[in-house]
Amino acid sequence: MDGLTGKVAIITGGAKGIGAATARGLVAAGGRALIADIDVEAGAALAAELGDAAASETTDVTDDAAIAACVGRAEAAFGGIDGLVNGAVLFKDDGLDSSRERWLAGFDCNIVGPAHMVEAAAPAMRRRGGGSVVSFSSIAAKFGQRGRGVYPATKAAIRQLTRNQAMHHAADRIRVNLVSPAWTWTTPIIDAAGGDRAKADRVAADYHPLGRVADAEEVAAAVLFLLSDNARFITGIDLPVDGGYAISGPDQGTPTQYRLSE
Ligand SMILES: NC(=O)c1ccc[n+]([C@@H]2O[C@H](COP(=O)([O-])OP(=O)(O)OC[C@H]3O[C@@H](n4cnc5c(N)ncnc54)[C@H](O)[C@@H]3O)[C@@H](O)[C@H]2O)c1
User: Fold this and answer.
1) Looking at domain 8-184+215-245, does it have CATH number 3.40.50.300?
2) Residues within a 6 A CB radius of ligand 1
3) Could you tell me the pTM of the whole model?
4) Measured between alpha carbons, how far is residue 243 from residues 39, 138, 143, 236, 247 in Å?
5) Domain-by-domain residue ranges, the chain?
6) Among residues 6, 36, 123, 206, which one has the fewest Cβ atoms lying within 10 Å of its Cβ?
7) How far is the CA of 15 from the centre of ligand 1 (A)?
8) Residues 57 and 70: beta-carbon distance below 8 Å
9) Is the confidence at residue 259, as pLDDT, over 90?
10) Distance from Cα 233 to the centre of ligand 1, integer Å
């Protein structure tokens, strides 16, 4: 992808999944990545794989001192910051029975984390004359589901947080956008499917008109587009990368009259 040469981005949650695919894609496109994750080993291994264009920093996005250290490390290692990907996520969710502790932990990682990351990185992006932030919502934020509470609520909340961040930072040419995946072949789906990709694709075909789960690289491609100069007039949007999940109604594309005439 063009429009990324020389760009420096912090990628929280960058050690695995969509964040790791984004780090690989950014470096392949001539950019540099600071992998900021609580998974120290996976982050260091990915940085070693990517060479001089990457570094890893142990960063817990629920810890403001760690956030400040992460921003300082990116500037020290690469001379500035052009982008931020808020990929760190807590999926844990006990539905509507979730304890107060569980609710607060979900919102701390998935909402307060991205909110504080953006404010911590914004001064460095301003010094570069602008920047781009990409956070994640989810298909989970668009429909009611039984048995879920915390995670979908955080993914709905980030849609409004993103609008406010986009408006607030627009004057400094810092763009803030969302990517909304559906089922993607990363940790939560791999774990739920017991590592069986064929099974995941088969079950996903009922919900995703394109007939399968996404690869992390396919979601990362949208993140990289929004990070790049190709998206320089786009801010405040929520870009679905969901194989058509969100356009499929309860009839799954078969009009009522066809069903009634069967
Ligand atoms: N995988 C899917 O099916 C799917 C669907 C919709 C939305 N999403 C969204 O995509 C984004 C990326 O998810 P993924 O699927 O790549 O997940 P993943 O679990 O594969 O990777 C998440 C990374 O975040 C790190 N992390 C967790 N807590 C952290 C913290 N407090 N501080 C720093 N790092 C932390 C983990 O160590 C891990 O490396 C998330 O925001 C998620 O909500 C994923």
Assistant:
1) no
2) 12-13, 15-19, 37-39, 59-62, 87-90, 109, 136, 138, 181, 183-184, 186-189
3) 0.97
4) 29, 13, 16, 21, 9
5) 8-184+215-245
6) 206
7) 9
8) yes
9) no
10) 27
